[in-house]
Write a structure and sequence with these properties.
By secondary structure, the chain is α/β, with parallel strands linked by helices. It has 8 domains: 1-35, no CATH class; 46-245, Nucleotide cyclase, GGDEF domain (Alpha-Beta Plaits, 2-Layer Sandwich); 258-493 and 518-537, Rossmann fold; 543-596, no CATH class; 598-705, Orthogonal Bundle (Arc Repressor Mutant, subunit A); 726-781, Serine Threonine Protein Phosphatase 5, Tetratricopeptide repeat, CATH 1.25.40; 783-971, Alpha Horseshoe (Serine Threonine Protein Phosphatase 5, Tetratricopeptide repeat), CATH 1.25.40; 972-1215, Alpha Horseshoe (Serine Threonine Protein Phosphatase 5, Tetratricopeptide repeat), CATH 1.25.40.10. The chain has 53 helices and 20 strands. Strands 3, 4, 5, 6, 7, 8, 9 and 10 form an 8-stranded mixed sheet that branches. Strands 12-15-16-11-17 form a 5-stranded parallel sheet, with helices on both faces. It has a 3-stranded antiparallel sheet with strand order 18-20-19. Residues 8-25, 28-48, 362-381, 397-417, 489-519, 591-599 and 1124-1135 have low confidence and may be disordered.
Length: 1216
């Protein structure tokens, strides 16, 4: 048969003239249907309820072997069967506030957590599944009798993030739809269940574990899902379990930061034991630790042999059930019913209780008036029928008489004439509450009672009335009534029933008072009156307490400092949040520091633990329309003003009064502050600043937005901030990036990076620049040459300042530094090669690009210098000098002199080096080198030139001039306020003091340098400071600590790939070993230093290094037993070590003279003279030392010149 495909809709038609799907003619080609472009943001606005991300628990129920029913039943019977089945499941689901989303024949899809949010949505889903199985088992006898079949089902549940939205505004199940893998997993997982069983996924299991009996079935592949799924089977519910009960089984985290609160609870219990009744409300937000405090006082009370603890919890499931928590308490703790008790047994227990505590069981005029007061004393009811009715016991009272036992039956419900004439339900309830209170008061006469009611925020009105009555009577009773509730309990929403009927709990004309679900706020406030009930508000933990808690949760796992900081920031001191977020990080792959290196004004977002998603979503859904304010505020960032929010929102929703009217918006913000969603602080300009009370709540609000809406919000925010002059370029850049507009973000990332680097906020600057480079990569490929050139120019500028920023944080020699400058050089050469093609164009002008040639070469010079590549460094310095001269740029020429002077200094060309440094100092003008230029040159050139020249002048024999250079450099530093330049200056200051052997000054300077480097993250200079401080410690007779510091510093220095200064550092380590008597290690270290010199050509410290080897030989000559002959390879260690020492000293003298380094020459001469003195060669020593000493014209108070003076005087005496 010939088939024709419809050109309009694609339907395949068997020889039709018209499409059987859409009606289009198939005889001639139809014009393709034009599908208009869809603006997803506009489409969302048109929906009755906007789509959003949220965590949802999905239940899927399917009949086993339903196909067989179609053979056994005719269609009408099958339809009726399905209707009965659906009704049965629907009743169970609705009882748990589930939403039946769709019927698939015999399959039923159910959502928990939307449209009604619950913090225990997964629990409700599992209960609904268990209830469905039980309900069908109860229903099956009827189905067997009516249809000749029984229904068995398979149920599966999964929890995960989905996108949910209302398709239309009607109330049909199909009006709500979701997308995501969660419904697919739930539907396909049911095939793994056996008949009448329930299977759940991994996330659902994580949420309900401990509350239900579960067993792991294994890991199974699911069609359409890339990763296999862990599947568990649920067999039943574990009764009366709380989160704390479950946590206790695996070990609780120690109670931290609650010592004062616990002491207060114990003190109040002591008061109770002295017959001074207490009522206390423990309040605080969800997860703050209310239950833990209650657990502590319960454990304390258990130590009292006679005390009784009575505990009950209010429940969201029973907010409409009068006296639910109180009845549960009485049944379990007071009357002590068991599940196996018959009605008669329960009745007997109740009557015995009333008798034991002398509560009158019938109306008795002789009853003690103390039991009841007012009208109740005059008309004391039969209390047994009252409590029997309350506890739902069919009443058959066995009445004691004087001649025996007679039976007087009562059947429930109790008839009106059982009670005094005219009594309605309200009077009966009041008298019932009175009896319950009397029972507790009588019990307290025998045993002190800890009376605990948890979760008051879910209490029913009748229970409030009971608690109010009890608390007003316990002043002289041994009862400690402890209530707990979430902060803001007095602001409960009234139920829709109250809004519609306008009835209150006190309406005596109503016949349904006991069943009322209205939570009267006046009643609650009456209960919590300060004269009756004291309040203990639990505050958030302090950051140190949070860190202590994190360590307990983490156990032996070491958390990175970044992770620790993020958890502290995100959890705001709420213990539950701390535990869950820490546990999530431990179980996930989020412990690398890279996770925390993202620039994000929302404080570096973090995934919200699944265990907290539902709790936080409930908080958001309770806000109603104000939820949109919270979502927009979450997009704005960690803090914002009402004015900024209004400007952003009014542009997005000009017709929405909530946003468009500033007064209305501020009113809603005040409401959010009162609801503990936002914090409010007044800024210096009297504007109000708003921050989220909990970052995790902010994150939940932000993640609930669809990407398209987020991008709209971000774009609008960026435009508003941009219009404010870009005061915070990083914020503008971030919002443009999140808006999917990288081309607009790049320039602002550049500005943000520059601004951070100018403030020496190098880590932040690197993040900003890296974000700019990432934004460049997002730009679509464009073959247009000018566009490519423009992009290359932007990358060139970013790479250039990235290189200088990386120098500060990772060190000059880091591969990333060389990589950034090398890439910049490649881009520059490419752009220059295209200059003739591009011509003159504003967007691709090469004038600014050419100006970057010098900074790029200078950056490469720095990298090569510190990596010990002195020849290539010198070549790059020469290139810098040529460019500076060609450009006739004085600022560039100063930096070029700095490059050549520094390179020649380490090559030991001291006089030529000094000439370049002096020339640079002469040219230096501070106004030509503003702080922004340091972005390319890392440090202030004036400071650096003077700092370099200080140890160089000392080497050349001018110690006083060296000191003066440091003073000049420090003055520049005071004006500049540039920490990196300060660190460079302190390094050379420490080096100068070390050369002069001024130990205390080295220690002081190194300590100051360490503080600056650690504060700003200058890793390379921190390593240098560590070496210098270690050397000072060894000279101060703390050899062990000093050597450890030097080794640590050298290791950190080498980690940055730096080889510059290693000869000096290794020489200092050898000196420390020698001082500690570790001669072999000292010798090996000096050999290592010499190998570095050979490899790199760094010879600035050659003379001192050679002299130190001579000093070691000299010491060994005086202590021949210190090192065996094998180490030195000689047969006569003493003789040969003196000989070697002299040889090294002579070599050091020669090196120093060749370099023109008079101070190194003096020191080598001193060492050789000391050696000759031991050999009575006084004349040679005098003739060597005196000419050198006489050469000096300054610095005679320095240690070396003082040493020379004293030695010359001794030699003169010896010669006489």
């Amino acid at each position: 048969m010939h088939h024709k495909r419809c050109p309009n809709c694609g339907f395949l038609n068997p020889s039709f003239k018209f499409c059987g799907e859409c009606g289009t003619s198939l005889e001639s080609p139809a014009r393709p249907r034009q599908i208009p472009a869809v603006d997803t943001a506009v489409m969302e606005d048109a929906l009755p309820h906007r789509a959003e991300h949220r965590q949802l628990t999905v239940l899927f129920c399917d009949i086993v072997d339903s196909t067989a029913f179609s053979e056994k039943l005719d269609p009408e019977e099958l339809r009726n069967l399905l209707e009965v089945y659906r009704t049965c499941i629907m009743e169970v689901v609705l009882a748990q506030d589930g939403h039946i989303a769709r019927y698939f024949g015999d399959g039923i899809l159910v959502y928990f957590g939307y449209p009604i949010a619950h913090e225990d949505a997964a629990h409700r889903a599992v209960r609904a599944a268990l209830g469905s199985v039980a309900a069908l088992e109860t229903l099956n006898p009827y189905l067997q009798a009516s249809f000749g079949v029984e229904i068995r089902v398979r149920l599966s549940i999964d929890t995960g993030l989905v996108v949910v939205w209302h398709i239309s505004g009607d109330a049909s199940p199909e009006a709500i739809d979701i997308v995501g893998k969660t419904p697919n997993i739930a539907a396909r997982m049911q095939a793994l269940a056996t008949p009448n069983s329930i299977v759940i996924g991994d996330t659902t299991h994580q949420l309900v574990e401990g509350f239900f009996e579960t067993a792991a079935l294994g890991t199974f592949p699911i069609r359409g899902i890339s990763q296999p799924v862990n599947v568990y089977q649920v067999s039943g519910e574990i009764p009366a379990q709380s989160r704390l009960d479950i946590a206790s089984e695996s070990g609780l985290t120690p109670l931290i930061g609650r010592a004062r609160e616990v002491e207060s609870l114990k003190h109040r219990w002591a008061q109770v034991l002295a017959s001074k009744g207490q009522a206390l409300l423990i309040e605080g937000e969800a997860g703050i630790g209310k239950s833990r405090c209650l657990q502590v006082i319960q454990e304390h009370v258990e130590n009292h042999p006679e005390a009784v603890t009575m505990e009950c919890r209010c429940s969201p499931y029973y907010q409409n059930s009068p006296l639910y928590p109180i009845l549960s308490l009485f049944q379990e703790h007071v009357v002590q019913f068991s599940s196996t008790d018959t009605a008669q047994t329960r009745l007997d227990k109740l009557e015995n209780l009333l008798r034991d505590y002398r509560i009158p069981t019938v109306r008795d005029d002789a009853a003690s008036p103390s039991n009841f007061d007012g009208e109740a004393q005059e008309h004391a009811p039969e209390t047994l029928p009252l409590l029997a009715e309350l506890l739902e016991i069919p009443l058959e009272v066995q009445q004691q008489t004087g001649t025996g036992v007679g039976a007087r039956p009562y059947s429930r419900p109790v008839e009106q004439d059982t009670y005094p004439s005219g009594w309605g339900r309200r009077q009966r309830r009041q008298q019932t509450l009175e009896v319950l209170v009397q029972v507790l008061l009588k019990m307290a006469e025998q045993k002190p009672i800890l009376f605990v009611v948890e979760d008051l925020h879910w209490i029913d009105p009748s229970s409030i009335e009971f608690l109010t009555l009890l608390i007003t009577r316990i002043e002289n009773a041994r009862i400690f009534a402890v209530l707990s509730c979430r902060t803001g309990t007095q602001r409960f929403r009234e139920s829709s029933q109250a809004e519609e009927s306008g009835q209150s709990l006190q309406d005596e004309t109503s016949d349904s008072d006991l069943e009322s679900s209205v939570l009267d706020t006046e009643m609650l406030e009456q209960l919590l009156r300060p004269e009756w009930t004291n309040a203990l508000t639990l505050a958030a933990l302090t950051p140190p307490q949070v860190e202590e808690m994190i360590q307990h949760v983490a156990g032996d796992t070491a958390l990175p400092s970044e992770a620790l900081t993020r958890i502290v920031e995100m959890t705001e001191g709420v213990p539950l949040f701390v535990e869950e977020l820490t546990q999530m990080m431990l179980e996930g792959d989020t412990l690398t520091s890279d996770v925390f290196g993202v620039t994000d004004p929302r404080s570096q977002t973090m995934e919200v633990p699944v265990t907290l998603q539902d709790l936080l979503t409930v908080r958001l859904d309770e806000l109603g329309p104000a939820k949109e304010i919270v979502q927009l505020g979450a997009t704005l960032g960690r803090e914002w003003t009402a004015e900024l929010l209004h400007e952003v929102a009014s542009g997005l929703y000009p017709r929405n009064r909530l946003f468009a009217d500033f007064a209305t918006l501020k009113s809603e913000l005040n409401t959010l502050v009162s609801a503990y969603i936002l914090n409010q602080d007044e800024m210096a300009d009297t504007q109000l600043r708003y921050t989220f009370r909990h970052p995790l709540l902010r994150e939940t609000a932000y993640q609930s937005l669809l990407r398209s809406r987020r991008q709209r919000y971000h774009q609008r925010i960026a435009e508003v901030l941009q219009g404010d002059g870009g005061f915070q370029p990083e914020l503008v850049a971030y919002h443009y990036t999140e808006a999917g507009l990288p081309e607009k973000a790049i320039d602002y990332w550049h500005r943000a990076g520059q601004r951070s680097l100018e403030r020496s906020a190098n880590v932040e600057g690197i993040r900003h620049i890296t974000q700019g480079l990432a934004a460049l990569e997002q730009l679509s490929a464009d073959t247009n040459l000018r566009k490519l050139a423009s992009t290359a120019q932007q990358e060139l500028e970013l790479q250039t300042i990235l290189g200088s920023a990386l120098i500060a944080t990772k060190g000059y020699a880091a591969p990333e530094v060389e990589g950034a400058y090398t890439r910049a050089r490649e881009l520059l050469e490419t752009l220059e090669s295209q200059e003739s093609i591009l011509g003159k164009d504003a967007d691709t002008s090469l004038d600014r690009v050419k100006d970057l040639r010098f900074p790029i070469l200078f950056g490469l010079w720095l990298s090569h210098l510190v990596r010990g590549r002195f020849l290539s460094a010198h070549e790059l310095g020469e290139q810098c000098f040529v460019i500076a001269k060609q450009a006739e740029d004085a600022a560039f020429e100063v930096e070029a002199h700095r490059a050549l002077g520094a390179t020649l200094y380490y090559l030991s060309e001291f006089k030529e080096a000094l000439a370049h440094l002096e020339a640079g100092i002469e040219l230096y003008q501070p106004q030509q080198h503003p702080v922004p230029t340091f972005l390319h040159f890392v440090a202030d050139p004036g400071t650096t030139l003077l700092a370099y020249s200080a140890p160089l002048l000392w080497c050349l024999g001018y110690p006083l001039q060296a000191e003066e250079r440091l003073v000049e450099a420090a003055k520049i530093g005071e004006d500049r306020n540039h920490p990196f330049s300060d660190a460079v200056l302190l390094h050379f200051k420490a080096v100068l003091y070390q050369h002069k052997n001024e130990v205390e000054m080295v220690e002081t300077t190194a300590t100051q340098m360490l503080r600056i480097c650690q504060e700003h993250g200058f890793s390379l200079w921190e390593a240098a400071a560590t070496v210098m401080k270690g050397w000072a410690l060894t000279e101060l007779n703390r050899s062990e600590a000093g050597i450890a510091m030097i080794r640590k510093g050298i290791a950190a220095w080498e980690k940055t790939r730096a080889e510059l200064l290693l000869p000096l550092f290794l020489t200092l380590l050898a000196q420390a070993y020698q001082r500690a008597g570790q001669y072999t290690l000292a010798l090996q270290t000096l050999d290592s230093a010499l190998s570095v010199v050979t490899r790199t050509g760094e010879r600035a410290y050659d003379a001192e290094l050679t002299r130190r080897k001579g000093e070691l030989c000299f010491v060994l000559g005086k202590e021949p037993e210190a090192v065996g002959e094998r180490e030195f390879g000689v047969t006569n260690p003493s003789y040969n070590t003196f000989e070697k020492a002299e040889s090294y000293f002579q070599e050091a003298l020669a090196i120093a003279r060749r370099q023109g380094a008079k101070s190194w020459e003096l020191r080598a001469a001193l060492s050789l003279s000391e050696l000759w003195c031991t050999q009575d060669r006084y004349r040679e020593a005098y003739n060597l030392l005196r000419p050198i000493y006489v050469w000096f014209s300054e610095g005679f108070e320095t240690k070396d010149l003082q040493h020379a003076k004293h030695l010359l005087e001794k030699l003169q005496v010896a010669l006489k």
